Every structure is written in structure tokens, then in C-alpha cells.
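[Amino acid chain]
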Amino acid sequence: MIDLYYWTTPNGHKITLFLEEAAIPYTLFPINIGKGDQFEPEFLKISPNNRIPAIVDHAPIDGGDPIPVFESGAILLYLADKTKQFLPTSLRGRNEALQWLFWQMGGLGPMAGQNHHFNTYAQEKIPYAIDRYVRETGRLYGVLNKHLADREFIAHEYSIADMACYPWIVSHQRQEQDLNNFPHLKRWFEAIAQRPATRRAYEKAEQINTAPSVSDDASRKLLFGQDASTIK
């Protein structure tokens, strides 16, 4: 029913988390971003921004032609609306879940991603950049920690907001964050880690790839050397 174009990144994990939780049949197509699979013409028809994840739904609820969806947040929302799962139905609950979904898309993901880049991948270590993104990542952890002080999950019930945020916390050590400093966040993180669907999703990732996406100059150029001239 669902084709998932995927690699073993936080954004990729978001979608396997949902599909495993919802028990939706899916076919997984690995897109090795370190080898340039994301630039193949067939993939670009589905994901014009040459980024994973992307899906094709072969059984949309309107009964029409297959629907491609790119951008992880949009995919989570699409799947939640399709299945009527993992998104509160009340006006206030839905609004809260969506706010935190967009918080992750616009804040936690990009800031933690820059943290990863300057801390791990950048060949030139720039202290200002490292400090900037480590501190901002910590601030965002603090925001989520405070929010979780009076609730089990981000929107009270487990939702796409949790699925969006969790994979970006998995790399907390690489982001130079100590979860002991964020007790509510740590409790939430450990609870999600123990969910059977979470285990299945990450076990599937281990079967597909255990190597870093950036392993040599060629992969570095593919991932970090793109500009407007490469869009064809």
C-alpha cells in the first residue's frame, strides 16, 4: 500500500516509527544518500528536493491515482489523516500536536542537524559554530523538557509529534547533551524507546545500514557540496 523511500537518518526513522505503530503494510526502498541515490531521476519525481524520506500511497482515501508525498512532517500528517491514528481529534489536541510537529521541523531538527554537521562532519572545526549549535540544541531540549513536566507525551497521548521529535534525541550524546539534565525529557525518551514499534523500526534500520553516510570525499561532496547549479 505504501512505498517508503528511506535512509537511516532521524527524518527517515520518523516514518518507520509511524508505519510500524500503525501496522500499515509498506515496501521499503533504501536510498543511499552517501552514494547519491537521492539524485536519481525516478526518485526526484517523488522528492524534488532530493531528500529522504518520501512515500507513494497506492491506495489514497479518495480512490484516485497514487499520491507521492515528500518532507517528513508532511508525510506524518498525511499518514495520520489517512489512518485516523496518532493525531488527536479534538480541536485543541490536534492543534497542540501540530504545533510541536512544526516546532521539530523548524527548530529541533535543523538546529540538531547543524550541531551534527559542525561537530562531526565539518573538516574545519569552527568553535563559534560548534558552541552556537550545541547551546541552541540544549535550549530546545530545555523547552521540550519543561513541556513534558505535566504529561506523558507531547500532546498527552502518543502522536506524530512524539514520532517527529524522538529520532532527533537518539543522538543526544553526539549533540553533547546529557539527558540527566532534562529529567522529564529523559523519562519520555526512555518510554518511547521501549515501545515495540520503536524497537522494530530501529532493528529494521540496523538491517539496512550501520555505516555513516559521510565516509569519504565523494560522499561529503554529495551531501554538502550542492548548490543551485546542481538542480536540473
In short: The domain at 91-194 is CATH 1.20.1050.10 (Glutathione S-transferase Yfyf (Class Pi); Chain A, domain 2). The mean pLDDT is 96. Residues 22 and 85 are 7 Å apart (CA to CA).
